[in-house]
Amino acid sequence: MSKPDPQPDPEVYEQGRGMDAHNEVMREIRGRRDRTYDPREPTRVWIDEDNTPTGVYQSLTIILNTGGCRWARAGGCTMCGYVAESVEGGSVSHEDLMAQIDVCLEHEAENADERSGLVKIYTSGSFLDEREVPAETRRAIAETFADRDRMVVESLPDFVDREKVRDFTDHGLACDVAVGLETATDRVRHDCVNKYFDFSDFEAACDEVRAVATEDDADAGVKAYLLLKPAFLTEFEAVEDMVSSVERCAAVDGCHTVSMNPTNVQRHTMVEDLFHDGGYRPPWLWSVCAVLERTADADAIVVSDPVGSGSERGAHNCGECDEFVQTAVKDFDLRQDPSVFSEVSCECELTWEAVMEREKSYGMPLTR
Ligand code: SF4
Ligand SMILES: [Zn+2]
């Protein structure tokens, strides 16, 4: 018997797990992309405000263009449109990545009065995957932001390693690793999201980060990203899956924050195909509120920043109440006080309740 491949590699997970069919469909869908991108420009950059274990900070959020997630190239997750935004050919050089960082610093200087205490770096995949971001670049970026307080870097669990985290904490930066876990339920992660790893891999990544915190007495932790309402779940199933996922993540040592992302319909994805065919509706904002309210006692900061909310492609209610419900969510993110939700109401809450009660599956037959 040959020894297992020591390199973390999504292809290994894919084999024999029944994921080939999902991947084949996704490769075809992504093949329709029609735009190309400049490797010296970040995918996106913006200034915001975030709640962290050490308080609320002004944040600089960067989506680096790194050539894309290697899992996405095999097919990737059912809702992820990032790969359609990535660079043709698959890798971006150190110089180009640093040029993207310069663009972000300029953006910050032009759009904020002060420097952000928190810097969050996402990629179209994993910042800690050295095929996307070489070690040299990771260290140069840590040095560039050494005068800040906290950094968040995004990674799939396979690439999380205590030495990589130390590149940041050795500069005195608090470091949070953001892991796109999506759900604590392996079956939903595999079959609805088409993501290849298990909850136990997430726990192992938390152990790596926690080792830095305990051995070096550094501030290092994990931020779990969860996906509210992946394809193929009813509204009710999605809410129940999310409540149990938040609770299971909060119970893992080292995971101090849970960020719940309602699915939004991105271009060139399987979710988009389902959406056009009447097979998918993004979650209700009432579902976001319900999860936040029910998990308010969890032993972690629980936040949600619904991308594109209020629009057809993002989490939405009836159109009348979306804006003030979203304001309540934002308020909860910063203060963690569930009473904000008792101050919002709308007639459409009754419709949401009926959906929660009656929806059986997205493709319910019309006749029997
Ligand atoms: S969600 Fe993450 S792992 Fe999945 S395809 Fe997108 S970037 Fe890759
Ligand atoms: Zn409403």
UniProtKB/TrEMBL annotation:
GO terms for molecular function: catalytic activity; iron-sulfur cluster binding. Residues 1-36 are annotated as: Disordered. It comes from the Archaea. Residues 59-294 form the Elp3/MiaA/NifB-like radical SAM core domain. Signal peptide: none annotated. Residues 17-36 have a biased composition (Basic and acidic residues). NCBIfam families: archaeosine biosynthesis radical SAM protein RaSEA. This is Archaeosine biosynthesis radical SAM protein RaSEA.
